[in-house]
Automatic annotation (TrEMBL):
It comes from Rubrivivax gelatinosus (Rhodocyclus gelatinosus). InterPro entries: ClpP/crotonase-like_dom_sf, Enoyl-CoA_hydra/iso, Enoyl-CoA_hydra_C, Enoyl-CoA_Hydratase/Isomerase. One of its GO terms (biological process) is isoprenoid catabolic process. This is Isohexenylglutaconyl-CoA hydratase. It holds the Pfam family ECH_1. Belongs to the enoyl-CoA hydratase/isomerase family. GO terms for molecular function: catalytic activity. The lineage of its organism: Bacteria, Pseudomonadati, Pseudomonadota, Betaproteobacteria, Burkholderiales.
Amino acid sequence: MNTPVLVHEDGRGVLTLTLSRPEVRNAMSLEMVLALRSALAEAEAGGRVRIVVLRGAGGHFCAGADLADMAAARLRLAEDPKAIEKVSAAFGELCVAFAQTGLATVALLEGSVMGGGLGLACVADVAVAATSAVFRLPETSLGLVPAQIAPFLVERLGPSQARRLAVCGGKLDAQAALALGLVHELHATGALDHALERVLGDILRCAPGAIAASKALVAQARLQPAAGMVAHAAELFSRAALGPEGVEGTTAFLERRAAAWAPR
């Protein structure tokens, strides 16, 4: 049986999760959603992984939800009136899990980046795209709602652009996605892996605990005024400065050497 997600962990603590249903441009089945959720949970619990990379097989990232799953859920409505809700919620929980993880996340985007695939791109800390990538939010053109990815679209793009994409059944080329801030870098398809390695190197030079704390602080800062965060931020900074990463990082800087967590 084909596995919907290929999992590879290297010696640096980089976990690559490859969406692997190339025959349907990696459309996201419930099985794929559960496999991604399980892989992330295992990475968080294991203590070895520092970065999670999301990418797609066969020249595409993800063509959105697998409509066959929705059709199957409709057939179960008589016995389970919430069947469609459960499928949708499973994907929403996946997005939340990736948005809230303390691990660094990178999305490598090429080909089709549609619907739920667009949502996954929005929850990644760093989104690196091919110049040929095409971004779509087709739900409203299908009579559907981008229900689970809407919060992450708003967070990434702001309410005005998120609303425009939803109202127009949005289609963006890579340059437009970069201009909106949906992605952070564009590269020719053949240069994507080289760009990924550079991004991974940058992240690996940063302390993993400091990354996790910084991500949590940024998430909190979205919801609270700066004045209300001063005391908490000061406590957080002091804890970091006095902790093992802070001591090692500042000592390494003064000694003009790489910190213990950095690649050699």
